[in-house]
Amino acid sequence: MDLLDLLLSAGLWATVLRIATPLIFGTLGELLCERAGVLNLGIEGIMTLGALVGWLSVYQGCDLWTGVMLAACAGMAAGLLQGLLTVPLGLSQHVTGIGVTLLCTSLSYYVYRLALPQTTTPPSIAPFAPFGDGALADLPVIGGVLAQQTPLTMVALCAVVAIAWLLYRTPLGLAIRMVGENPAAADAQGISVTAVRMGAVMAGSALMAVGGAFLTLSAFNAFFFNMIGGRGWICIALVVFASWRPGKALFGALLFALFDALQTRLQQGGDSGIPYQVYLMAPYVLSIVALVVMSRRAAYPQALMIPFRKGER
Amino acid sequence: MRLERRESVPAWASVAAPLAAVAAALILCALLVAASGAPVLKAFATLFTGGFGSRFAIGETLTRATPLILTGLAAAVAFRAKLWNIGAEGQLYLGALAAVALGSGPLALPAWALLPVVMLGAALAGGLALLGPALLKTRFGVDEVVTTLLLNFIVLLFVSMMLEGPMKDPMAMGWPQSAAMLPEAELPRLVARSRIHAGLLIAVALAGLVWLLKSRTIWGFEMRALGANPRAAAFAGVPVGKVVLRVALLSGGLAGLAGACEVAGRAGYLTLDMSPGYGYSGIVIAMLAQLNPLGVIAAAVMVAGVFVGADAMSRAVGVPNYIADVLVAVSLLCMLTAMLFTRYRLRRG
């Protein structure tokens, strides 16, 4: 198929939006944590946990939205753990993050095996249905794309606006940005650095978990091992790419998803002589390139990864 | 409540902290075992006997510990210099790939020279894999955590590409697997009727060498100075960029050797599922050992025993063997917390 035709097809953009959804959730969640000064490397594990909890609760008979809420709660609990270790205790955010990822991933697999001891084919649930024909499908231009989406994608898009509004238009957002830039100054203003950071990490982790739950409740209908498959790490790169701004995070996630969707189509397009692994590598290579390009003008939150202890420098 | 830095770390605390951490991890995991409905004490007893309780168990544990010692060392030397190398998994696979590339036939070398060349080649491959992220860190200020992590995926896909393409063994019935190592390029078995191989000796010797390097040489001093306070180290004339690159070559090289020892000592050829996350476990082991190279040996044997024992436990009492990963992850988090409380004390007010 001609590349231009492909780029103009609603099918491609519907796929892009679907692939982008977990990245949007994850990137927004990580962005919120980092804006408050905490690098949350637990993201890969927290997304796995969200995927499992969302799926398992629906499998046990909850309805889909309850599954999403429970996944968010599980993410919040993991965020509480990551927050407790890094904020009041001030442990190395790198190492605790890896620990939280290992813990959440292995715990998810353990619980999955407990729930289903002997199955080889993962049982499925009835996931969120696409909107299909209706008011959305009648919209000009984007109608065809939106009709194929599920409610969680809309939630992701709304979350972009909500996080941007929170960060730049509310006193709480100012407090979050302040504890990420200059916690001592925030403290002098009477802001509790600990409380704001804990809150940001927990809320951010909840978003990540919903991103994971999207995979089991919307994109697929079952839980698989290695389901997240590095999406969490890509989100961390996307946050840098987005220079810690929600709008750019949306743009970055869509760009990545476009790339991913194109590589799938190119791969299916016949034997090009290029091994399929090259296509699969591309998003990771692109992430590193993006990091290098953006790092020149990266405006890291100044207190990122630096624990704050009152009265200690 | 607030944390207050202790003036000095009491000696008893640095011994008690790891023990307390492991005890806490065992108690937390006991809850999970209980949740599976298995008898907790019997489960832990089979975990222990499965890992250490017989000649066979000890052999399996030491075989499993060999790559873990090397990846643990890789993490320990890097973390000591505050180079956050999360990419040992990729470096391990690249080392293994270099080992099979050199050791499966193409080199016309006398037998005594082949094995050293294979090992050096693997170490070099692993070291170069970390050199890239280290250069990006020193030149452009790109965070190495993310780059080394992403490189793991790239390397694994590259290895997959090689094993399905140019390096595929035509005799492997279509499986993506490399050609077998030449017998001269294999590490000899150490003990009859077990899989313990000479890689264990290499790993233990390297732990000793790294300890000497760290505590007895200028290079080691510079690495530690960089880790303790980069700005002070730079001010004191430590060539920061050079030291980072040196640490990168050493750390990546150790991880690459872990891969070489696996193919040359245990498997004999390379497949994509050779490592069940040895690179990531290395991080845990380094932390459990408090970044001490000699402690890495003990921590690696313990973690290997947990993994080997968990398989036995899973068969005996039906607890999913993922409990081993949970136990290791919980131990890591408990250990980090315990280490904090050796340096700080909790004060009211």
From TrEMBL, chain A:
InterPro entries: ABC_transp_permease
Pfam families: BPD_transp_2
GO molecular-function terms, A-Z: transmembrane transporter activity
Protein's UniProt keywords contain Transmembrane helix: yes
Keywords, ordered alphabetically: Cell membrane, Membrane, Transmembrane, Transmembrane helix
Protein's membrane topology: Multi-pass membrane protein
Keyword Cell membrane: yes
Subcellular location(s) of the protein: Cell membrane
An example Gene Ontology CC term for this record: plasma membrane
Principal location class: membrane
Transmembrane segments: 6-25, 37-58, 64-87, 94-112, 150-168, 198-217, 278-295
Name by which UniProt lists this protein: Inner-membrane translocator
Organism of provenance: Rhodospirillum rubrum (strain ATCC 11170 / ATH 1.1.1 / DSM 467 / LMG 4362 / NCIMB 8255 / S1)
Biological classification of the source: Bacteria, Pseudomonadati, Pseudomonadota, Alphaproteobacteria, Rhodospirillales
From TrEMBL, chain B:
Top-level taxonomic group: Bacteria
Cellular component aspect of the GO annotation: plasma membrane
Keyword Transferase: no
Official protein name in the record: Inner-membrane translocator
Pfam families found in the cross-reference section: BPD_transp_2 (PF02653)
Residue ranges the record marks as coiled coil: none
TM stretches of this protein: 61-79, 91-109, 115-136, 145-163, 196-213, 283-310, 322-341
InterPro entries: ABC_transp_permease
Predominant localisation class: membrane
Keyword Plastid: no
Annotated localization: Cell membrane
Keywords, ordered alphabetically: Cell membrane, Membrane, Transmembrane, Transmembrane helix
Record membrane topology: Multi-pass membrane protein
Any GO molecular function: transmembrane transporter activity
